Amino acid sequence: MDTHDTPEKRVADEEAIVAARAVAFDNDGGDIQQKAPHGMRPKGVEMKREMTKEDKELADAGYEHLKHQNNTGQKEGDAKLDGVDIHEHGLGFQELQTELDTTFDAKDPSISPGLSSEEAKARLSRNGPNILTPPKKKSALRKYYDCLMSMFNILLIIAGILEYILLGVDFKDNFPNTYLGGILIGVAFLNALIEFYQLQKSEAILASFLAMIPPSCRVVRDGTILTVPAAELVKGDIVLVRSGDKTPADLILFSANDLKVDNSSLTGESEPQERLARPAGSLMQRPVEAENLLFNSTLIVNGEGWGVVVRTGDHTLIGQIAALTGNETGKQSPLGAEIGHFVMMVSGIAILFAIVFFVVGITTAYKGKGEQTVTFAVSILVAFVPEGLPSVVTLLLSIAAKRMAAQNLTLLATDKTGTLTRNQMTVTNLWSGLRMFSAFQSNNDSEDTETFSIEAPGMREMVDIAALNSHVKFDKTDIPFEQRRILGDATETGLIRFAGKHISDYDAYQKQHPRAFEIPFNSSNKWALVISEKQHKTGLLTAYIKGAPERVLAKCSTYLKDGKEVPITDDFKAAYDEAYDYMASRGHRVIACAQKLLPGDVYDSDYEFSKNDAKYPSTEYCFCGLISLEDPPKHGVREAIGTLRLAGIKVMMVTGDHPKTAEAIARKINLILGDTKESLSKKSGRPIEEIYDDEIDAIVIHGDDIDSLQGWQWDQIFSKNEIVFARTSPQHKLEIVKRAQALGHIVGVTGDGVNDSPALKKADLGIAMNISGSDVSKEAANMILLDDNFASTVKGVAEGRQIFVNLKRSIQYTISHSTPEVIPQLLYVVVPLPLPLSAILILVIDLGFELFVALSFAWDKPETKDGLMRMLPRRPVNDHSIMSLKKRALRRTKTLLRDPETQEVIHPSKFSVFMTKLKAPFTRQFWEEALERSDDETLVDAKLLSYAYLEAGMIEFAGALAGYFVVFFKNGFTPGDLRRAQSALNAEPPVTYFTKDSPDFINSRGQRISGDKQVDALGQAQSIVYLSIFIIQCFNVFAVKAKFRFPFGKSIVGNYYNFAGIVAGACLGMFIIYTPPLHVVFGGSFHLSPLYWLIPVGFGVLLLVWSSIRVLLLRKGIEQSRVKDIKGLMMFPTMRTMSMRSKH
Fold this sequence. Notes:
Membrane topology: Multi-pass membrane protein
Organism: Lentinus brumalis
Largest sheet: 10 strands, mixed
CATH topology of one domain: Calcium-transporting ATPase, transmembrane domain
Distance between the termini: 44 Å
Strand content: 5-15%
Protein name: Aminophospholipid-transporting P-type ATPase
CATH architecture of one domain: Up-down Bundle
Radius of gyration: 37 Å
Number of strands: 28
Keywords: ATP-binding, Cell membrane, Membrane, Nucleotide-binding, Translocase, Transmembrane, Transmembrane helix
CATH class of one domain: Mainly Alpha
Structural class: alpha/beta
Subcellular location: Cell membrane
Shape: elongated
């Protein structure tokens, strides 16, 4: 008898029947035997492999940390939980209605009148909105201080303070340094101010986005179910919650159906807790233990329930325990980490050179003159540190933040339903009694497919199951069925729409056959059971079950044929397989239906059903048939996936659907183009066992196999270009993301349901849907697609890649002038020569025209139409990168301390970690890893540094130095004269030239040059050096853009902001050089002839020529990093998606 089956036996029987493999793996890595009873799951990958111990260790390396994660929740904050003021859970229904002044119907909650709109408004104005006071944030002053304490700013402040200390030592001689010290400190504070302003602006943008997507809930007002913002809930409101919802306030349940809630955020309990209605009130004293109470912000993970609001806003349990909400935390992005690393590197080099030049200067040029040497060292520091770069980076990123960015994805795991497809289910075919029926007009059905008729054998039973085994609700019940909006998931909605067409009075039919017991669908059972009061020959009750075909068939011993129950035979199984393939191969979702006429002598009207102790019928069902529903792909999805794949991003589907359905949809949308083992076997006529793994590039994995996969098997799966995971649970989705990340993938996850939220949270980029997405998925995501358009992810990737390129160009451009700033300082000391560029002018370069032009890169357009979107991700995951990652992980694993008994890892102390990091640079392993070849493209890499410092930098230096010597020569100074004049400082007695009080200088031609002419000559020389850097940098604006093409053409010069930046920089330069009052601070001379500008113009042209040669030299490497064309991609819209059968 069914009632004597134990839950363990039932699960064992079911698993035995459902043991067919989509992908069969062997736990020991040996030969694999594939099983396919009933043929219910397609065969897939069969891996045969002998592995050595070393192979297994290397394969498992990198996944070690996943095995040791502790998933058990801990109860915390008991004292706080005990101290909350909530007592309503102890009240009976009548007392509750009296206290809250509301009315509800516990027997039929859908007809509860709820509050009136006027009463709700009055209570809202009296008690305030249902929102939590946000957690305490950092003060504006503290945020500004954090911005100020960056490495560049600290260096500038220290340098500025040093100048003022020198002022105190010798005020008269060091007075000119007042300007330098003030400017340095001012720059640091200005940089921090810009960063602080943008930070505040970004927070405001984020807040506005959150305001655009307010959490909503279903509430009964004036007897109608409405969807209202959760903030408008008031005490006494009647609320409907379902699986996937976030509880909008503290609720007391008065009706619940298999409701489970995740309280882990409050109590630390890892397992979902069952919640029930208690007519007499709960006996539990502690609110957190009350089984009839739902708390604000907790997640409904299963079932549905009706509750009355008893607490809102700060009066809810979570509002009363403010400490549980925590304070804000931030995780640095990979791009932020790279920028930080670059800043530290440049700062380190600047400090090192400043110290070296200080030592060189005090022992040679300055001979013990400490104050002058310090000023000189500060000049070196100023020359090396690109003072404007922090502001440029901050402003560039803030401009970019207004556009979406997903710039470094290597793998995108996407849900199917509602993400790739429209989530609009339509019943297309029904199969019952070995006959196929079409419920949807299509030209693609086979000739023996009959048109659906309710009078055909088995069809009445199928419609009954669709209608009675359902959990949908309607927004209104006082209008015709066709005009109602159905509140429920897409599959249930499709089935009810279909059933409603063939039942004359849907509401009367439901009341005629009320439910005696039910078990709603959940992701572990994959079936739903309803027992209705529907009379038959042997009893009063009928059990209806629907769900995943393999699960439902596992419960059946007979099938319905011409109104009679016939035992299941091998012929039936073959016909079932054929029907299943017919439906699933078209990309349809397939639902199985079965019924059991419960005998009255066992299941009478007083029988107490219970799912906890298995007191419900679970076997010996009669299989009624299969229903297929089609959910067509969204418009633009196929082209979007094709574009992503051409961008080198691996796109894989992770769905709860059957493998056949998932594969068929995947083939429609460019996700699978090649053969799986099964399709290749059908094509070639070879047995699956004889097909080698390297012959195929597509793989379909069944969720049941995921838990037993070993490290090498995960590696083999992710080595494929076309991957589909089917029949997955939320835990599987999370595991897939973790495994992909362990191999070095930057993982994006798209999804809309509650089952996607753990994976969305874990992913590097979680992308949720706004319109169809659950509140929980939106909360877990980093990005929300407001229009639910999957194709928007392509725009995100393209924007992100362009932002990265623009940021890289800006940095490359900005640091190119470091070489012509630093080397003249070196010549000043070593040769020596009169100072070609003062520290003040260096600051004017860095913070003047450079700032304008560097910012203009933010508006750069792509160099070619599809250039960036045909390049590999900048951190590609390939065999070399995976092997490198695994070898490092294996080395780490072997050096970990472990408990000798339990083998648990003993985590080292913070001091031990610090000492290990300190010793690391002195080990061979450190340098092997640091110098290891990598295909990664970082923000600041060797190519960028080579171009900026050695290529463009040296050309700029040569141009500036040429102008310097020509101007001095025209003023009577040969290079030898300059050396002799500057060396006089170290003569006995010392003679100082190039000041107004200097003695006349006799040059090599015997000409006498007065002090005033010396000062003017130096002013002109320094001016031409400054202008040379500016003019050559103007050419460099276009040279840095040349990667795919030469630095000419519309795409290179099409950014008008570049020209605006150049004009602004030119105006600043002219103002500083040709305005006499400013010469006191900056130097310069208005006597400089514009003809001298032609010298740097010539070197600018030389830079463009070199840039063109560089394009030719690097072209081969760029071509190799381009993604090759993918054979079979369909880059045209899905014109007709309904009932198009896959060719495979």
